[in-house]
TrEMBL record, chain A:
Gene3D superfamilies: 1.25.40.390. This is SusD-like starch-binding protein associating with outer membrane. It comes from the Bacteria. Keywords: Cell outer membrane, Membrane, Signal. InterPro entries: SusD-like_N, SusD_RagB_dom, TPR-like_helical_dom_sf. Belongs to the SusD family. GO terms for cellular component: cell outer membrane. Pfam families: SusD-like_3, SusD_RagB. SUPFAM superfamilies: TPR-like.
UniProtKB/TrEMBL annotation, chain B:
Transmembrane segments: none annotated. It holds the Pfam family TonB_dep_Rec_b-barrel. Its main location: membrane. Residues 1-26 form the signal peptide. GO terms for cellular component: cell outer membrane. Residues 389-950 form the TonB-dependent receptor-like beta-barrel domain. Residues 120-226 form the TonB-dependent receptor plug domain. PROSITE patterns: TONB_DEPENDENT_REC_3. GO terms for biological process: iron ion transport. It comes from Dyadobacter jejuensis. It is a multi-pass membrane protein. Belongs to the TonB-dependent receptor family. It is found in: Cell outer membrane. This is TonB-linked SusC/RagA family outer membrane protein.
Length: 503, 998
């Protein structure tokens, strides 16, 4: 009986204790993500804004490090790829038969819009931000607008008309904007950037790893040159292109820009920060953000390469001999007798001899998103096309010609210099050689409607192998060379998700 | 396959019929013998009673008895302390043999139903039970293996043969498209533990709660079914058991790939076809023909070895019951250097402190080590197996200096790192330490009231350290994750009998909290290739951190009413409050009702002798799914990585990541169930059939956002999925003689799954991205179709010479692959198959003859397809695989022999070309054992040999139709069931073992 009572008491004791524990439980049912996550939404200080802006670079780099970013460049008459290997997506561009299922187009499209989304977020989150350091806020916002413009321009060069997403909340049924609307949006962002960015971004290396006012102006000049050509063909923009380019050339010292003396030095890892780049995308292989467009990708399998990016034979044949050709191609190779595929190898891709190991596809090479040389040639060409040719325009062209001939670019040299002729066409051709293998040629052919003219003449004329056989063009054209096939189709998946993009 | 299972069913039926004629006629006496079923020795002093009378007797020293009958038919009730009572129908003059099962088997009559146990006969819901006896004849190293094919409505598929690899368990299909479809696991009352870490030898029984009337007591976590695991307790007789086995496993088949000579020859022709140059000279070809090159597939596989030692002791001493066990298992995989080991220990002790108070403590600790686990180290473009299958057979493993050739010497076939070099030099160790403590206190106030408290504490600490040697520089990755779980359950139970009325009421208050904290680093570009512990020397270093916490608080009530042992009524309601949803959305109420009626007691059925038991069950209930990641309702910011502005160091950056959705709430599944339990011939044959319909609404669905709007997906509550199915379980004693007993169990499940509604769209793309670099999803979710739809091109063979002009329009030439296009020439992407099995079955046989025991377990699945992307890559010329490697290529298109094997064009791996029938039947287990009896000083001694996966009947061309993959970055593996991107094959295993009981 007594035992019964004790156990009863004990039981009740245990019960009460447990209940007490239960009721006073420390269970917290309100989630607080802040302990392990950065809070989304409006910024309250400079550090948050800086994080957001750096995030744009992280996204940009994630896509720019792959050749996918440059896939439309294979459309040009300067670049080709392997005939058989797993480069089908590049071959589609090379052979002018780009499918809506092209995986590189789709990846690139998605990556561009993830930068756009991030930029839209920064703009929205900083809307009510008032930093005590107004210069810092301007600088950071200027970068944001610059970045959004940069990627939209990159995309419109591939696809033409695109949807314009300009706010952080996704609008899933946007239509395609007209070409005019796209250019105006890019112009507006670049003008904001031009107004907000400093002359030189503080505490950065040479080559504008963070853009300055000059960078924005240079990209604006590029935009106007495009705008004046196909498909918008607003000829009045040539004058604007020339004017913007001239602003950059005239003030290059204040922006920290200048041409380098030796063209070949640009393609070395040692010289990856240089004054000629008006906007540099920076890489660091050991830190996991290496540049995967160079090295192995430009070598044939004879040299254990991945044979993605080759020079076209006819273009190589036509390329004027001289220091510029030597800086563009690896002339030390007996490329006509490679066993796998016989195409010239770009020094711009694989680097000068010994600079990048044969086994390396992930490098520290930086990207020069745009070079000052291009500003010079935009000035020369746009001056010609707008009918306002000045000695300064000839000088801009001649500087590039002198360097190409291995002479000091700033010293007039009658053996090289030109002072008469169709400066626009001379500059257009100068671009062809100067930017060979830099994925820019395709866009020149588009804007001047010269795709058919250029790509109809790709068959080699003089290059022969040991056996004396004339080499053949690597990837013959199979698609249309007419204007309706200039732009790549919008990725099919996107059209499936938003049929408005199909119109 | 369906046909085959029907045939098996018929076969079983015929056997059952044969049994019905076994009764004798004659004299007024009944004689018999009562045996101990475990060792067939006679039981002296057992009680034999004629049911409904006081006539009875006891057995003699040998277990024999004689009894006079007054009526022609009678039922004998035979009982003995420590054994399960049996009722045997007899006629005058019959001679009967009765085998009593030891009382540890009593559990088989008791069913664990969650927050309590019930007599099997009182259960109203749909519950499947798997006890130790069901799998004791098979050497199991994993709990899931014990479940496979033994519980109807439960599909267990071994998607990876990796030792310690994932085993998928699904109860009655899949409901959730985005969330997790794993059933809830409750171990001795503690919710949410991992099934794969439990030592199967510690398990007394597992109950699978299938319908909503059974699972609704687990509310918001019950929608995928619930598996209740009960571990062993000590019984009266102290004993010591030792179980040792060793097994050998190997890959059951090899996939056909080209040898070096054929590969080189076809590579030459492929290049020439495309206007290129041959890469191999005739001399080299002759060399390959003579020497054969390297077969990387065979180099990768090995014979694996498994060793298992299990020691346990149990018993009762005074008022204390104990069960103590230790287990060590080491399993070498069939892929070189893969290994899994597990060391575990358990102590279950309970004590009757007074006759009212009982306290029990269960402690369980394990250490698992997963070495070079291929499932953990997923490869972005296909698995290691796939890499070995597609690696260049013309490149030797090592060069003349004995150093590994890291890459193909001529950049042929797979462009990745040499798989043999990789596996030989990598060092990955995922070590998980788990500790679970469970304290339960039970106090009986009186005959009617009792209170139980269960306190559960679980902690798991896993360190994942990886050293990878991928050229040019090695890299190390480290992550440490700590999970802790705290649960407190308070259970009040009331039970009272009022005449023919029996009432039970249960009330529960419970809460649980889980926290996770993880920290890690990566060290890339080792300057000196010196192993994991010299990460300080790496040039690139990166940090990662994560923390989350979630909790749930619940109230549950259950009322059961039984009238006259005929009518059974159960009603439950659970209220859950979860931290995963916002304040106004975080409470869910989940009700259920179930009704059962025992027809066998009706007069008209009582007259039918053969029917011993006939029970009808009907149930309805609602359960939920809250299985989304913590913080899913909030937008998130990605802070990984950084940008090297100065070219030397990374500056961190932030960018928008998840969109967040504050409106999220539970997924709700409403289920109807109708069931019949039929017992024939004194329950010698038992049939259980359940039909059900489940409808899941407010699906937690990842709705894709178009890339131009930011990409990714938003989690929303939209859509509906329906599952309808039938579960059948048929078991019986085919032969029941003294020295010869054959028990057979057949389970079958048929399921029809359908997506009823999405967010207004007719389809959304899945998230399992192809491994060919195309960035395209392999799966699609379509209204009106089951989950698991494959998405891709329709393959039409090759373009023929006569179609050259037409081919040119899509940029192709004769001999290139041809795919279905629409009128505009755009390639059509559509559903091309479904990977979710719609029919599964298991057939388990245990035959005991004298000292011999034979167990044979066959199971199968059918009505599904496999998207064999692996084969697509073996064929090649796509993704990372640049050449042709399939023997089918020997019959490739030529201008003179225009076959449908393309010589060029796009090889789309997600196309109907690689969709295959996945149906299979597998001889899952055969084991034969011999028991030595009456050895002095030894209670029992048993030696056995067994084989797993000895026979696989399937038309599938790959390793194993059950082998399927998960997406590279995880994700729901049910929406992309049946996708094979290089799954680790299931091994064939032969095992030898010995069991000693003292």
């Amino acid at each position: 009986m007594r035992k019964y009572k004790i156990s009863n008491l004990l039981g009740i004791g245990v019960l009460l204790m447990t209940l007490a524990f239960a009721v006073s439980s420390c269970l917290d049912l309100d989630e607080d993500p802040a302990k392990s996550r950065l809070a989304p939404g409006s910024y309250s200080n400079q550090a948050e804004l800086e994080l957001g802006v750096t995030g744009l670079y992280v996204q940009l780099e994630a896509m720019a490090r792959m050749t996918t970013f440059m896939v439309s460049g294979w459309g040009g008459d300067d670049i080709t790829t392997h005939k058989v290997s797993n480069k089908a997506d590049f071959r589609e561009y090379d052979q002018r038969s780009v499918s809506a299922l092209n995986a590189r187009s789709a990846t690139n499209w998605a990556s561009i819009y993830s930068v756009v989304r991030a930029a839209n977020n920064v703009i929205a989150n900083a809307k009510d931000l008032k930093l005590s350091d107004q210069n810092a806020q301007n600088r950071l916002m200027g970068e944001t607008y610059f970045m959004r413009a940069l990627v939209y321009m990159h995309l419109t060069r591939i696809h033409g008309r695109i949807p314009l997403q300009l706010q952080p909340e996704p609008i899933v049924d946007l239509p395609l904007a007209s070409q005019e609307e796209v250019y105006k949006q890019i112009e507006s962002d670049l003008k904001q950037a031009e107004a907000m960015l400093p002359l030189i971004y503080p505490n950065v290396s040479a080559g504008a790893p963070r853009p300055n006012q000059g960078s924005a102006k240079a990209i604006l000049a590029r935009l106007y040159l495009d705008w004046a050509g196909y498909p918008a063909k607003d000829q009045s923009k040539y004058a604007l292109a020339a004017a913007k380019a001239k602003e950059v050339i005239d003030n290059q010292k204040s922006y920290g820009f200048s041409l380098v003396t030796d063209l070949e030095s640009l393609w070395t890892i040692a010289n990856r920060f240089n004054s000629e780049s008006i906007f540099t995308i920076v890489y660091n292989q050991p830190l996991g953000v290496g540049n995967r467009k160079y090295g192995m990708l430009g070598h044939p399998s004879d040299l254990k390469g991945w044979q993605e990016t080759f020079g076209e034979i006819r273009f190589f044949e036509d390329f004027p001999a001289g220091p510029r050709k030597a800086a563009t191609y690896r002339l030390d190779y007996d490329w006509e007798n490679f066993t796998d595929q016989t195409n010239p190898v770009f020094k711009k891709i694989v680097g000068p001899k010994g600079d990048i190991p044969l086994t390396s596809f992930d490098t520290d090479r930086n990207d020069y998103y745009m070079r000052l040389a291009e500003v010079n040639l935009i000035f020369a060409e746009a001056s010609g096309r707008s009918g306002n040719v000045t000695p300064a325009a000839w000088e801009a062209l001649n500087q590039i010609r002198r360097r190409a001939a291995g002479k000091p670019f700033a010293t007039p040299d009658p053996s090289v210099d030109l002072t008469s002729g169709d400066i626009a066409e001379l500059a257009f051709t100068e671009r062809k050689w100067e930017f060979a293998g830099e994925y820019l040629r395709w866009n020149d052919l588009v804007r001047m409607e010269r795709v058919k003219e250029a790509l109809s003449q790709r068959n080699p004329r003089t290059s022969k192998n040991k056996a004396g056989e004339l080499l053949k063009v690597s990837n013959p054209i199979i698609g249309s060379l007419e204007k309706d096939n200039y732009f790549a189709p919008i990725p099919q998946n996107e059209v499936n998700l938003n049929p408005n993009l199909g119109n | 396959m369906l046909e085959m299972s029907i045939k098996l069913g018929k076969y079983l039926g015929v056997l059952f019929l044969l049994l019905c004629f076994g009764t004798a006629f004659g004299q007024a006496q009944v004689t018999g013998k009562v045996y101990d079923a475990s060792d067939d020795t006679g039981i002296p002093g057992a009680n034999v009673l004629v049911k409904g009378t006081t006539t009875g007797t006891s057995t003699d020293v040998d277990g024999n008895f004689t009894l006079n009958l007054t009526q022609n038919d009678a039922i004998l009730v035979i009982s003995f302390t420590g054994y399960t009572t049996q009722e045997i129908p007899v006629k005058k003059g019959s001679k009967v043999e009765v085998r009593l099962e030891a009382s540890s088997k009593l559990l088989s009559e008791i069913v664990v139903v969650g927050y309590g146990t019930r007599k099997k006969s009182d259960v109203t819901g749909s519950v499947a039970q798997v006890g130790t006896k069901d799998f004791k004849d098979q050497p199991v190293t994993r709990v899931e293996e014990a479940l496979q094919g033994r519980a109807s409505g439960v599909m267990v598929s071994r998607s990876s043969g990796n030792p310690g690899g994932a085993i998928k368990v699904r109860v009655r299909g899949v409901n959730s498209i985005t969330g997790n479809n794993d059933p809830l696991v409750v171990v001795d009352g503690v919710i949410g533990l991992a099934l794969n870490s439990i030592n199967p030898n510690d398990i007394e029984s597992m109950e699978v709660l299938k319908d909503a009337s059974a699972t609704a007591i687990y509310g918001s976590r019950g929608s995928n079914g619930v598996i209740l695991v009960s571990t062993k307790k000590g019984s009266s007789k102290p004993r010591l058991d030792v179980d040792v086995f060793t097994g050998f496993s190997y890959v059951p088949k090899f996939i056909d790939v080209l040898g070096a000579y054929d590969f080189a020859r076809i590579e030459n022709s492929r290049r020439i076809n495309n206007g290129g140059n041959a890469v191999f000279t005739d001399q080299e070809l002759a060399g390959f023909q003579a020497n054969g090159g390297v077969d990387y597939q065979r180099e990768l596989f090995q014979t694996g070895r498994t060793n298992n030692v299990q020691l346990s002791t149990s018993g009762r001493s005074g008022k204390i019951n104990y069960f103590v066990s230790g287990n060590y298992m080491k399993q070498d995989g069939i892929v070189m250097t893969t290994r899994y080991s597990r060391l575990s220990g358990r102590v279950n002790v309970s004590s009757d402190i007074t006759d009212k108070l009982r306290v029990g403590v269960n402690l369980f600790a394990t250490r698992e080590n997963n070495h070079n686990n291929l499932d953990d180290q997923r490869e972005y473009q296909g698995s290691m197996i796939l890499r070995a299958l597609t690696w260049d057979p013309t490149t030797p493993i090592r060069n003349d200096q004995g150093v590994f050739n890291n890459y193909s010497l001529r950049s042929l076939a797979h462009l990745g790192y040499n798989p043999i070099a990789d596996m030989s030099t990598r060092d990955l160790n995922l070590i998980t330490d788990r500790f679970n403590a469970n304290i339960n206190v039970n106090y009986r106030f009186n005959d009617h009231f009792s209170y139980t408290a269960v306190g559960g504490l679980g902690s798991s600490n896993s360190t994942n350290s990886k050293y990878l040697t991928t050229p040019p520089f090695p890299a190390a990755f480290f992550n440490n994750g700590q999970t802790s779980l705290l649960q407190m359950s308070n259970i009040m139970a009331y039970e009272q009998v009022f005449g023919k009325h029996n009432l039970k009421v249960t009330g529960v208050y419970e809460f649980q909290q889980n926290t996770y904290s993880g920290n890690g680093y990566s060290a890339t570009n080792y300057l000196v290739p010196s192993g994991f512990y010299l990460a300080e020397l790496a040039a690139g270093k990166n940090l990662s951190n994560d923390y989350n916490k979630n909790g749930i608080e619940s109230l549950m009530g259950r009322a059961e009413y039984i009238f006259n042992d005929r009518l059974f009524l159960t009603g439950t309601v659970r209220r859950d409050k979860s931290s995963r949803f916002r304040k106004d959305k975080n409470v869910g109420i989940f009700p259920s009702v179930a009704l059962a009626y025992n027809l066998s007691s009706l007069p008209m059925l009582a007259a039918v002798e053969s029917i011993t038991n006939l029970k009808l069950r009907a149930g309805w209930g609602q359960v939920g799914n809250q299985n989304i990641a913590p913080y899913s309702t909030y937008p998130s910011v990605n802070i990984n990585g950084g940008y090297p502005f100065d070219g030397k160091s990374l500056t961190p950056g932030s960018r928008p990541d998840g969109y967040g959705n504050a409106d999220l709430t539970w997924e709700t599944t409403t289920q109807y169930n109708l069931g019949v339990d039929l017992g024939l011939f004194q329950n010698r044959i038992n049939v259980s059939v359940d039909a059900y319909q489940k409808k899941t609404t407010d699906l937690l669905l990842n709705v894709p956002v178009p890339a131009f709007a930011g990409g990714g997906a938003v989690l929303r509550n939209v859509g509906e999925v329906e599952n309808k199915g039938i579960d059948l379980s048929l078991s019986g004693a085919v032969i029941n003689k003294q020295n010869f007993r054959w028990d057979a169990t057949m389970t079958m499940s048929k399921i029809a799954n359908k997506v009823v509604k999405l967010d207004g769209r007719s389809e959304i793309q899945g998230s399992f991205l192809n491994i060919d670099g195309s960035g395209r999803a392999l799966n699609v979710i379509q209204v009106g179709q089951p989950l698991g739809q494959f998405y891709g091109e329709t393959f039409l063979g090759t373009w023929k010479t006569a179609e050259a002009d037409e081919a040119l329009k899509v940029g192709a030439k004769p001999g290139d692959s041809k795919y279905l296009t629409d009128e505009n020439g755009v390639t059509v992407l559509q559903a091309i198959g479904n990977g979710m099995p719609k029919f599964s079955w298991g057939f388990n046989n245990t035959i005991a003859y004298k000292n011999w025991d034979l167990n044979m377990f066959i199971n199968g699945m059918s009505n599904f397809q496999i998207l064999n992307v692996t084969q697509g890559l073996v064929v090649g010329a796509t993704g990372n695989q640049r050449g042709f490697l399939s023997p089918t290529q020997l019959n490739q298109w030529t201008p003179t022999n225009e076959t449908d094997i393309p010589v060029g064009g796009q090889n789309r791996t997600a196309s109907s070309r690689y969709v295959e029938n996945g149906a299979f039947a597998r001889l899952n287990n055969v084991s034969l054992s011999y028991t030595f009896k009456k050895i002095k000083g030894i209670e029992s001694l048993k030696v056995y040999a067994s084989g797993q996966n000895l026979v696989l009947i399937t038309g599938f061309s790959g390793y194993d139709p059950e082998g399927s993959d998960r997406n590279y970055d995880g994700g729901n593996d049910d929406t992309a069931a049946g996708v094979n991107v290089g799954a680790y094959p299931n091994p064939r295993t032969v095992t030898f073992g010995i069991k000693i009981g003292l």
